[in-house]
Amino acid sequence: MIYVVLLILFAILSIMAVIDNRRKKYYYIISLSLILLASLRDGVGTDWKSYYNFYIYGASDIEVGYATLNNFFSAQGFSFNFFLLIVNVLSIFLISRGTLKLSAIPAISLMIYFSDLYLYFNFSGMRQAIALSFSIYSLTFCIGKKRNIYLFLIVLLCAISFHISAIVFAIAYFVPQRSLNKKEIIFLIIGFTFFSSLVFFASSFLTGLFASKAEYYLEIEQQSSDIKSLFIIGIFRRLIPLVVLFIFSKKYIFKDSTSVYLFNLYLIGLGIYLTTYLISPDVGVRLSVYFTVLEMFLLANLVFFAKKFQIKVILLLIIFSLCSYKLSTYFKYPAYEYKSIIEGM
Hints:
This protein is mainly α.
């Protein structure tokens, strides 16, 4: 299967990136591969039909950013796959630019993204794929000398124009870029309690709002008969990066302000997931993903900061195992069986 071949390739490139100081060339190869894989697909993804119909018949009852982009290229008579190329160039370019700023080893970060959220969004929830990409890029204006709330908000508004759920990421600019103190932790707990109550009372509206924008729910969510079991699996999947961080970090990763900031944001995503999933799985996943996606940077930075080569090897094996597991969860869904337009030529 092409996904397995690419994962192995990306793993090899990630290892080479760890050894070679010239890391950018490996991330360029992975970025190009991700663009081509998503652009050349034919009928792949749980929402292929919905987005294809948007393109053929026009999009109106969805966010203005995607509708404008969709209708412009459709009116020019370009093929749907050419439009997919434009969408994925935009999405992967933004993620890649953010990765260069936030990750010490970009190849590892992109491999982690490929193993799960790439298929989840770039192959299915394309509007949120672009919104997520803008959100990741917006973080470059939250750190260092480029910290600029106006540019952050402009980029975030672009994200919201593609998927309304990105509005939750507005809090990212105000999250401390240092270890949280006791008062801030208590404040977060109170905040999550309030947020879960808000989602409880507005869950029907929020779920309807997200769903009405496109006729699509991922089969992974639709076919689940045991929400509590999925919730527990989701918790373990989100806790594993934290366990790995605490076992192997030995405090050096937490001396890097960017990594501390990303860690704090990841905790917020975990909190959103824990307090909202059982109320509304769709809302819980969509809102928390803007923060939990940052594991792709945290784990890559952990490898970089590890001082012993043996530790780097162990971490790479753990990361590859996690990526393999996440990728394997998509194999049982026929909608993800890869077909390319090249095959039909």
